[in-house]
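Ticket #4471: structure output looks truncated?

Reporter: J.K.
Steps to reproduce: submitted the chain below (457 residues) through the standard prediction queue, then opened the result file.
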Amino acid sequence: MANPEMETRTIRNFSLDFEPYVLDVFAEQHKVGVLTFKSSMHCSFIYDDKWMLDGFDISPHINVGRDVEENDINRFIQNLLPEGTGLKCLLNAFNISRLSVSGMLNHVLGESAGILHFESRESVTPAYLELTSQMLSKRLDTFSNVVIWNNQFRLNVAGVQKKLNVHHKSDRSFWLANKEFPSTHIIKFAEEEHSTIILNELLCMRLAKAIGLEVASVELLRVFDSHGKSKHSAISIERFDREALSNGTIRKLHIIDGCQALNLLPEHKYEQIFGRHPDVAHCRDGASLKALFAFARQHEFSHQNVMQMLYWVAFNLVVGNSDAHGKNISFFMDINGISLAPFYDILSIVFEARRINNLDTDLAMAIGDEFDSSNITAFHLLSFAEEVDVTPTQLKTVVEQVALDCKRLATPVLCSDESMSKAELENLAQLIIMINQRADYFLHQTSLFDEVKKALL
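Returned output as attached by the reporter:
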C-alpha cells in the first residue's frame, strides 16, 4: 500500500536543485512574453512590453496589463500538452515524469494549438521531413508509435486518439512540420480494436457540415505499403487555426479550448471529474454545458454563435457523440475579442459501443443532470434549456431541425468521393440506421415538451 507521506515528500522534493528554465513565448514572429519555470511543475508568465501595447490576451484569464496568477498560466500551459497514447510515448521515450510540465513542454516548443510557440537558448528546430505512406505503413504494421521521428517528438496537439500533425503541401504530400513550416492538418489513426472509428468520424463530420454546423474539413486517407497495397486507413482533418495565404505561407490563428476558456485543468474536461462511481459522481466541478454557455454570454458571443453551440449539442445527441467534452470545443481569440471556432472530433461513441465491450457512453457533460446518453428525455431537455438560458421553443426548434436534417441527409452520398469496400459501406449503412433511430427518438421527446411543462406546473 502506498505511503501518503512518502508520496507527498516525493512531490515536494521533485523540484529540488531545479535550475530556473526560461522560455520566450512567440505569436509567429512577435514576442508575447516570457515563461519561467521555477520548478518542473510550476511556471510564471510576464507579457512583453510591446505585446502589451499591440497584442491581445492569450486567455480570458491571462490578461494584458494585469499580473498573471501562476495557477492560471499553469492551467493554460498544461492544456497545450499531448494526451493519451502520444503522451505515453513522450514520457517513455524521453524518460520524463508525468509531473514535469517543463519536461513535456520542452518537446513541443515549436508549435502548439493556436498561434503560440516557445523558444529557449537550447531550442533545436526539428527537420522539415517528408512523411511518405510507406514510412507510416511500417510504423502501423508493427504497432509502433507515429509521433517520434529521428528521436524527436513531433506531436503538438492535445487529444487522446493516435494522431500526428503534418504540413500538407499542394502536391498532396505530407511533411513533418516545424516552426518555419507549420502543420496544416492532423492525421488521426485507428487502433486495431477501434477500426471503424475512422469512417464513423468521416460520416459524422460531413453530416454535421451538411446540416449547417461549422466544422473542420475532413477526408479519408489510405496508407499504402511499399507494394502499393492499402493496409491502413486514417482521417485527415484540416486545421482551422491555420490559414493558407496567397504567397504560399501559413498564417496561424490563436485559439483556446473549453478548458482554457473555463480556466480548468485538462483532467477536468469531463463534468464528473472523478468519474461516475456513486461515491464520487456528485463531484461535478469539470467542464459543463451550463458553464460554456455562460462563458459565451459573458463574452457577448453573437446570437449566431450561441445558436451554433445549441445545434452542436443537439447534433451530438442525435448521432450519439457522448464524448463531447470541454476540450472538444474551441474559441478564436484576437484583438477583436472571442468567438466560436469550428467544431471537431465528432463521432458516434454510442455506435462504437455496439462492437466494443465496456465502452463508456455516458455523456461528458450532462443534459439536465442526466449523463446516460440513452436516457435523455423531454424533462432533461427542458431542464437543459433553463440551465443555458434558451427558451423551450428555441430548443425544440433546434432539436427538431437537427433530427429532421439528419434523417434527410445521413446517406452514403456524404462519402461518395471516397472509394470504399463492401464491408465499409455496410458499416456506414449501420451507422446511418442508428442515427435515424436516434433522430426519431428525439423527435418524439420534443413532441412531449408541452405535456411535460404542464405536468411540472
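Triage note (M.O.): checked the attachment and the full C-alpha cell line is present. Confidence is low (pLDDT under 50) at residues 1-16.
Status: closed, working as intended.
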